[in-house]
Design goal:
Blueprint (H helix, E strand, L loop, with lengths): L1 H38 L3 H16 L3 H4 L3 H7 L5 H14 L4 H11 L5 H13 L8 H11 L5 H13 L6
Helix pairs in contact: 1-2, 2-4, 2-5, 4-5, 5-7, 6-7, 7-9, 8-9
């Protein structure tokens, strides 16, 4: 029994150290991404930095990402489609506090010319759940414009709408 307890303690300490190392790496990565967003004009670098912030937030390090949220939201209106797509995905992973403003911007992106931007906007809206209620009309219109109810995009829209407006049990 004591060997089991000793082994469990060693495994626990090892896992704790690994988590701390991951957390530290994520915090440093977030700081570097924020610094990149503040200084670079290069669209690929901005898109990569925004994507990194989304991944760090998805890994549970929201506090490390928080200072960069305004830059991520700003990316939703970027002239570069790659930056807009990365920003749409990242806001879905981050879930900014000001959901109302972000939901409107994401709903506007459903009319974007770039397919990846639209796909990521749909996924992000779905991740906002009921907070994305104001985007329901835009989602229905995007699905109608797609024209193919069996397409991946239409199925993604259906999934997002189910999360945003779940059916109430009878």
């Amino acid at each position: 029994m004591s060997r089991f307890v000793l082994c469990a303690a060693v495994v626990g300490l090892t896992l704790t150290s690994a988590v701390r190392a991951d957390n530290k790496e994520n915090i440093e990565a977030a700081k570097a991404a924020i610094a990149t967003l503040e200084k670079t004009k290069d669209a690929k670098e901005r898109a990569a930095a925004i994507a990194k912030l989304g991944k760090v937030a998805a890994a549970g390090q929201f506090d490390a990402v928080k200072p960069g949220i305004p830059k991520v939201v700003e990316g939703l209106g970027d002239k570069d489609a790659g930056v807009r797509a990365a920003a749409a995905m990242a806001v879905g992973q981050i879930g900014p506090d000001d959901a109302e403003a972000v939901v409107k911007k994401l709903a506007d992106l459903l009319k974007d010319k770039d397919e990846k931007v639209k796909e990521n906007a749909v996924k992000a809206l779905g991740s906002f759940g009921e907070k994305a209620q104001p985007a329901m009309k835009a989602l229905r219109e995007a699905k109608k414009e797609d024209g193919d109810p069996k397409s991946k995009f239409s199925k993604d829209v259906d999934a997002a709408m189910k999360t945003i407006q779940p059916k109430k049990p009878k």
